[in-house]
Amino acid sequence: MEPILQARKVTKKFAGLTAVNTVDLDVYAGEIVGLIGPNGAGKTTFFNTITGFYKCDGGSITFDGKNITSRATYQNCKAGMARTFQIVQPFGQMTSLENVMIGAFNRISSYREAERVAAQWIDFVGMSGKTYDRIASLNIGDQRKLEMARALATGPKLLLLDEVMAGLTPAEIDGVIDLIRKIKESGITVLMIEHIMKALMQLSDRVVVLDHGEKIAEGSPEEIADNERVIESYLGSAYKKK
Ligand SMILES: Nc1ncnc2c1ncn2[C@@H]1O[C@H](COP(=O)(O)OP(=O)(O)OP(=O)(O)O)[C@@H](O)[C@H]1O
Ligand SMILES: [Mg+2]
Known about the structure:
Elements: E1 5-14, E2 17-27, E3 32-36, H1 43-51, E4 58-63, E5 66-67, H2 73-79, E6 81-83, H3 96-104, H4 111-124, H5 140-152, E7 158-162, H6 170-185, E8 189-193, H7 197-203, E9 206-211, E10 214-219, H8 221-225, H9 228-235
Parallel strand pairs: 3-8, 3-9, 6-7, 7-8
Antiparallel strand pairs: 1-2, 1-4, 4-5, 9-10
Helix pairs in contact: 3-4, 3-5, 4-5
């Protein structure tokens, strides 16, 4: 089976800093792949490079069988790639519904239909009680769920989640874990960056580790938790098998 996303030697430099250094990554349809690594490892930059927000300085990216290396973000979105942002990027003065409708307009031109689809995704993320609230008035947990709904409303095959659990309470985190499981069950492939290991380890089919822009390990959550290099650079010993 061909991977839905294939990154080959992907490289992104900022002046003297190589933020992403010849990274290879395969994501297969139906998987949840976790992307971890210390602060500044290059995880978000890797997302920005895959989605076309940044142009690669080297390497190539294939998505759904097509070379997308120099494609723009909106083209990737049309092709079925959607993302959330580490720092939420809502349209603050608009309602939840309007925010999610913007996602829906990726595939739908009718206003009524976009409204219907957006309402469905708001319900899917458990936010229907706040459909008509101005999004800037909501707390961070609600804003993150609505950002997921906006991404889902674009109709993605692959969803990239950048720390959707950051700043949430333990109860909210459990809710988002269930939500990500439901996204997978609905047939959407997920590539997620997360520092909350308890969540990442239970959700991921596979985990990829970046450090200083380079991929230093890849494997099942168990293999990663037991990998000396990962323990040393990032995890500490808390996750090592006793
Ligand atoms: N637009 C930019 N211009 C210059 N340097 C940048 C830019 N974006 C990121 N960097 C640098 O690239 C490196 C990787 O940053 P990145 O945000 O990708 O890390 P990260 O793994 O997502 O970290 P975190 O876990 O803290 O979110 C860091 O050294 C960062 O300072
Ligand atoms: Mg980041």
